[in-house]
Structure formats: C-alpha cells, structure tokens
Amino acid sequence: MSQPSGTLFIVATPIGHREDISARALETLRTVALIAAEDTRNSGLLMQHFGIRTPLTALHEHNERSVSATLMQKLQSGLSVALISDAGTPAISDPGALLVESALAGGIRVVPIPGPSAVTALLSVSGFSARHFFFYGFLPVKAGARTRELATLAGLQATLVFYEAPHRIRECLAALAEALGGERRIVIGRELTKLFETVHRTTLAGALLWIDADPNHQRGEFVLAVEGAQQPADQDPARHDALLLALLEKLSLGDAVRIAMQVTGTGRKMLYERALQLTQGA
Which CATH architecture has domain 7-116? Predict the structure, then answer.
C-alpha cells in the first residue's frame, strides 16, 4: 500500500501586528512537520512569540526551485508542510507559487489558511469602490518598462493597487502622476498595522508634496490604491434614460431600442441592456 501524501498549507501571517494571526494559522504551524519560510530569522521571532517549535527551512526567490523539489519529497512521503512569507499571504508578490504549482501537479492537497493582506486592508479603508480592483504588485524598476506598464493600466475603470519599497516610493508616485494625471485620487498605506501606521488620502499631485514634506513619509513598506479611470460620458448607460422611457411607453422594447439607436448613434447592446433594466425597474 502506498504512503498517503502530506498536505501543503499556505498560511497567511501578520503584516505587522502579531495578534492579527488566526487561531487556525497557529494550530496549523504547530502541527505540521516543517515550516517553509521566506526568512527564517524573521519568522523565527514570530514562532518564538507564540511558542511554536516546528522546524523552519528557508524558501526564498533565490532557492525556490531547489527547495521546492526537496519539500515535494517530504510531502510525497506523508509529511505536511506549511508555507509562510515574511508578512501576509504567500505566493502573492512573494515566493511560493512554484512550490504550489509543483504540489498541485504532483497530486498533493494544497490548503489555504487565509488571513492578513495589505491589499484588502488598504482597500477596506480607502473609501474607493472595491467592486472591481486590479492588483498589480510592484511596478518595474526601470523607468521605460514602468511607463509602458502604466500606459496599459491608465484606462482601467477599476481601483489600481500597487506595492512599493521605501527607496522607490517617490519615483513611483511621480510616474503614477505623469501616466494617470495628477488629479487622480490615491490612498497611501504606509506600515499598515505597525507602530507608525499611516493612511493618507490625497491626489497623485498632492502625494508628491506629501512624500517630500517629511523624510519619515518615505520610510517603511507601502501599498497604494489609485482610483480607476472615470467612465467616459458617452459610455454612461443612464444618459439616454429619458428617451428610452418615452419610447418604451408606446413601443415594444425592440422597437424602442432600434429608434434610440437611430437617434443617438449609440450601440445596440448598451441601449438594449439599459432599456431592459428600465423595464424591470418599472
């Protein structure tokens, strides 16, 4: 009879405040055979704080391929492993995706243990609609590549979310202002859940003034939420409501849409969907 495989647990850890860790995460970290951590020194302090004695092994961007192969052997032998990053959820702008991919390909059970995330933490207090958001992570370091990437994001009508390091925060904000326009609103999250947590709301133009106003504003880890592009007026589905309502009083939905198309030059799909909403609302 073959040995049953172990389970790979993807465990979210605090992004700052240690007490944000979940009871389920602590129980998992105590009971697995091994913890794969991005930085064993940093994670060792967290384990020590909670009295967790599970062995740690390093898995970071420079050794992920070789360590993943070793961990796969342990998982296939029946041992369970927990993957953690320095902060937040592993494999999201952090190492770990290769291990997860290998585990899935090898038939290993992969279980998420959800928890802290800088992205959702900032979005929840941003005041922006998070019905749609686009998480980019870290923009390219080189200016040309960064400009090209931002050009592809400029027209998105979803909130844009970025990570940035302290030594690049000013040039990142300058690039955002140039590519997206200084009037766009931004929420800057600095050192979230930590002692010097800051959440600053301003425009992209104002963000540069704020970041230069105090050297401390450029310290710490950053997550940025930038409001999405505004919907062009000619794509506002409600702008022809008066015409559609008048037509719908006398005509079928199909005839009303056909005449509205002739009068406004707007596409059938948008008018039809809006007319349908109006009839259902009525």
Answer: 3-Layer(aba) Sandwich (3.40)
